Amino acid sequence: MTIRILIGDVRDKLRELPDESVHCVVTSPPYFGLRDYGTVQWSGGDIACSHEAPDDWIASQFNAHRTIKGEQSASARTRWFLPDGSCRCGAQRIDRQIGLEPSPAEYVETLVAVFRDVRRVLRKDGTLFLNLGDSYSNAGTRQGDRDGIASGVNVQRKIADGYRPRVAGLKNKDMLGIPWRVAFALQADGWWLRQDIIWSKPNPMPESVTDRCTKSHEYLFLLSRSERYYFDQDAIKEPLSEVLSQIAYPQNHDELTERRNKIPQERRDGDGRLNAKGRASRGAAMDISGRNKRSVWTVTTASYPEAHFATFPPALVEPCILAGSPRGGVVLDPFGGAGTTGLVADRLGRHAILIELNRGYARMAERRITDDAPLFAEVDAE
Predict the structure, then answer these.
(1) Dist CA 275 CA 139 (whole Å)
(2) pLDDT, tens digit, for every residue of 320-347?
């Protein structure tokens, strides 16, 4: 199988792909305000400047503001930069990464524009599986606090330093609802929003919150370009063995009697036994090949040793590719990351195209896919 990795901004690289050339898209864009992927570049200024606040300056700022509640050295670092995000040496920040927009509305607008071009390269019968997580509005939280999100001026610097101010217009601790904001915006832009799939995580990220439950799920949206589209339900059916293991059998005579009494009268004979109609309907309900896959997918989170960021679990990507593309088809991930989509596509006999802004991550994905199938995968990082 051929795996192409295009290195660059997704908005530029998508233009290089021909119309209707992709069967299925499986992707997880950078979540809003949760991580800086280290793609910033600087233009002009002092070439000897590291564009970071010196330690002695941070110390002086911390001492000067130590009486302010919650003051941290992280927020002191942010004051090193000017209001427009430039460095004090005069260098201008250049960073096109997605996820660090000043507001949820701008983040949603950015993703809608990206997926508008994704729709162009997707076949008319193609599908999009979109994974997105949520975050909260909170002021002054540290990077380890999942309730914090980024906003405002110098957002990249604040994320990198762990300081996340509150989003304007939202109350402290408000849930942002990012996944649904994006899903509805894509629907309004012409996509068919077909289903919300719940990714249930048996091993969620630990949280120290005491006034809500620990978050143990994310959304995976199924969207399509057309009303009718390719979807191989049989390829992802739940095996009969799993179905039977989930059936709750009656535990005693009373429970058995209660269940029997719920069977419609027209499916019974005079003595209460199932008639031909009842037996036929009962038999038809049990498909020996399995049952249609349900909309809650329990998948353990997985990590890749080289990656210091969250990666797609292969088990989450596999049913998307099996259902959304034929063998020999082409799968696209416009936010390639560690290359999980390409890895799984190769294992399942599909070609893949990955787009990744960070050159280091692209090389990581190339090594990972090549190491997984050294004799079969043809990986080309461009």
Answers:
(1) 66
(2) 999 999 999 999 999 999 999 999 999 9
* DSSP-derived secondary structure letter, 293: P
Q: Do residues 324 and 230 make contact, with C-beta atoms less than 8 angstroms apart?
A: yes
pLDDT digits (tens, 9 = 90+) for 9-61: 999 999 999 999 999 999 999 888 766 555 566 677 777 776 666 666 556 65
CATH class in words for 2-38+97-134+177-236+292-381: alpha beta
* DSSP string of 50-61, one letter each residue: -SS--HHHHHHH
Q: How far is CA 333 from CA 131, 288, 293, 368, in A?
A: 11, 34, 23, 16
Instruction: Report residue 319: phi and psi, to 5°.
Output: -65, -30
Report if pTM > 0.85: no
- C-alpha dihedral over 66, 71, 73, 77, to 10 degrees? -110
Q: Give the mean pLDDT of the chain.
A: 77
- For residues 208 and 136, what is the distance between their CA atoms, to the nearest angstrom? 14
In the chain, where do the E strands start and end? 2-7, 22-27, 41-43, 92-94, 122-132, 192-200, 217-224, 296-298, 330-333, 351-356, 378-381
CA distance 129 to 236: 15
Cα–Cα distance measured from residue 149 to residue 134, given in angstroms and rounded to the nearest whole number: 10
Residue 95 and residue 290 in contact, taking contact as beta carbons nearer than 8 Å: no
Please state the three-class secondary structure of 187-229 as a single string. Answer: HHCCCEEEEEEEEECCCCCCCCCCCCCCCCEEEEEEEECCCCC
* The two three-digit tokens of residue 29, written as one number: 């864009």
Distances from the Cα of 186 to the Cα of 113, 229, 323, 357, angstroms: 9, 17, 21, 23
Phi-psi map region of 173: left, alpha, beta (phi>0 left; psi -120 to 50 alpha): left
CB atoms under 10 Å from CB of 67, counted, come to 7
Q: Is the pLDDT of residue 1 over 70?
A: yes
Residue boundaries of the structural domains of the chain: 2-38+97-134+177-236+292-381, 41-94, 240-285
For residue 122, give every residue at least 6 positions away whose Cβ sits within 8 Å of its Cβ, in sequence order, or none: 20, 22, 23, 24, 25, 128, 225, 332
Residue 34's closest CA among 139, 144, 129, 140? 144
> Mind listing the pLDDT tens digit for each residue in 164-187?
445 667 888 888 999 999 999 999
